[in-house]
Amino acid sequence: MENATRFTDPGYGLWPFTAEILVRCPACEGLATVTKAPDSENGRTRRLTCTGCGHNTSWTAPTLPGGNSWSIPGARGPYDPYFHRPVWLRAGCCGGHSLWAYNVAHLDLLDRFIGAELRERGQWASCGEWTLIEALPLWMKAAKNRDELVRTIRRLRATLPG
Question: What domain of life (predicted)?
Fold first, then answer.
């Protein structure tokens, strides 16, 4: 197994991938991005901007009682946590499951993990919260689904501009 591709879990959670989320525009269903608003105080405001129709809107985190902090939504599924728009990088595969990623960096991580023949846990394993890789569903970890998952990732990459 000398030439096997190797992947070591870098220990990321899902949250770092929310800096830029590719979503479907609510106005035209084209590609839009959700990013921190340039004038945002501590990342509290996010902006959805469509590259096709120019639609844009903002979301600001609600202030918690007491006024000193604000509520951060949970990043969980194939929708952005701010505007609840479906992510752009989403496709069905492996018998009715859905493969999704927030952005290209997230898709790259999944691609490296799924394509690897040797998968290692890394130093972050069992340090409290699960890493994104540890939290993946079993169908994404199964070697029998590797080929279909790799094909699905290629299809998702083909939907990106440029």
Answer: Bacteria
Distance CA 19, CA 36 (A): 7
Q: Answer for the pair 41, 63: CB distance below 8 angstroms, yes or no.
A: no
* Whole-prediction pTM: 0.89
What residue numbers bound the domain in which 125 lies?
Answer: 6-158
Q: How far apart are CA 114 and CA 23, in angstroms?
A: 23
What are 33's strand-pairing partners? Answer: 22, 49
| pLDDT score of 36 more than 70 | yes
Domain count, the chain: 1
Asked, for residue 1, whether it belongs to a domain, the answer is no
Across residues 62-88, what is the average pLDDT? 82
**Is 95 within the bounds of a domain?**
yes
Phi, psi of 46 (to 5 degrees): -115, 150
Structure tokens given for 89: 């990088």
